UniProtKB/TrEMBL annotation:
GO terms for biological process: SRP-dependent cotranslational protein targeting to membrane. Pfam families: SRP68. Keywords: Cytoplasm, Nucleus, Ribonucleoprotein, RNA-binding, Signal recognition particle. It comes from Perkinsus olseni. One of its GO terms (cellular component) is signal recognition particle, endoplasmic reticulum targeting. This is Signal recognition particle subunit SRP68. GO terms for molecular function: 7S RNA binding; endoplasmic reticulum signal peptide binding; signal recognition particle binding. CDD domains: SRP68-RBD (cd15481). It comes from the Eukaryota. Its main location: cytoplasm. Belongs to the SRP68 family. It is found in: Cytoplasm; Nucleus, Nucleolus.
Amino acid sequence: MASASEPTASLGEELPSVPAHAPFSLNILVKVKTMQQQNGLRHQDYHRYRQYCSRRLHRIRKATKLTNGRERFKKCVIPDDFSLDKVLEIPLVSAERAWAYSAELLGVYAQFIEDKPALRYHGIGRLRKAVRYAQILLAMCRVHCDSRTVMEAEAYESFMSGVLEFNLEEFPAALEKLTLANDLYQKLSVLTTSTSEKELKLEKAYYAQMLDSDIAPKLRQCRYYADESHLAERKKESSAAKEGAKASKNQVAILQQIDAVKARGDARGDVMTLAEYFDSTDDNILAAIDGCSEVAGLCQEVLSKIHSEMVKPPDESGGIDWAAHEVEVRTVSEDVSGERSLLLIYGLLAKLRSLNSWIGTSKARMSVKPEEGVRLCDMLLETLEGTAEKQAIKDIRLLFLALAHASGGKVPEAVSLLQLLEQRSATQLKPEQDTRLSRGILRLRADLLPAAAVQWRMKCLLQMVAEKGGRAAEAPTTTESTKLFPPPLQPMPCKPLVIDMAFDYITPPDLSKEVEGRKPQKQAASTGLLSRLGGWWGGGRS
């Protein structure tokens, strides 16, 4: 393994076959995008980012004790066997520094009207160095890292090589490299490793930025300039070779599990309606929820096996399009998970239906928690894609949010939200996707919200009347009590502004008499003072 200062020396050396440590895991794209967003590239400041990479590289070398010597031509070589995962960041940060320097030089070159070949030559040279660092990183990851990190290093190296060929105007080669990087990053966007929801959203945003902003524009330009006839022939040959490849026994077993999962998802039929839920027994409801949980768990098990096959090299994939199967299984998983959340929402609505007292009492708060409905709606919003389905879930979430305010004692806020819900429920939504989950969601919105919004708004108004009168909630005898909401407008007392408004019209007092009366006094004082000075200087002379 060569040093990061001399990238060409490491590609020909042999690496240890079995490292002495467990395989490292390095999320390359997330680390790179985080460094770029926090250090200048949000404003396209490549010079600042290059300076940061230099400081970062120096800190990593000091932490790993791999600093260069002070004498001339004394460079520190990275050992073949190491136990710190931070050593992998040395070629990564070096590649980022060389790439940032190249982007800075090529940006300056593009600003000149006349041709500056020295700037372009220098920028291309730094870009070649970035590609060599990316190749060093790939060689290190193949020995010391897991399969997912190796795939990410391959995607990073393909992207750097594609950018180099793009700047050299070798568009067919650039198209091939960038297409490979695009395919790898699309697979990696599915194989997320984040545990928390915030990190997962950030990781997906970084992959979307890489695919849509960094790779897609270059791919369009390469397709415009390149002749794709020979690339099409290569794709046909590679697809024919893949079709002739044989899958292993383990891969055949995974395919059988995928077919079983899809069959169980198709056999479930339409989602239970709210009226059917109210008429069903507890055993039938529990069996439906357990069935959804069982299929969802089976989908997660199959997805983990598919992900392990996706990170393997292409020659070991068995000629199977694992990405397409992953999309199919994930669709079934999201469908049954959404159905389970919908059944839990039905159960919460059934508890609300059976309430005999006001929702804000302590007994009602112990049995029914509207905040749980808000949480279930948020879970559904993350899995849905259609606009109409999302709007329907948002309306149902608004109902639970209003009930949560009413349960917490904020009855006027709940009335306002329910009044907004009445306006929303008057419009009809058309489904964009004819799926069993979308049909169930839109059917629930149409059957529940128009009546529930009016019913709960009347209950909240009665509760406000009861609180105003200081007695328990009961049916009013007249309709005048409903006029308490909205409350009548009352004038707000404000500070008087008469003095400020009349200030421009006040005439100042006449002070001329005072000024004229003080002038003789000033003259007398001045003459007396001069006479004294004159007497002091020359008054005694004859």
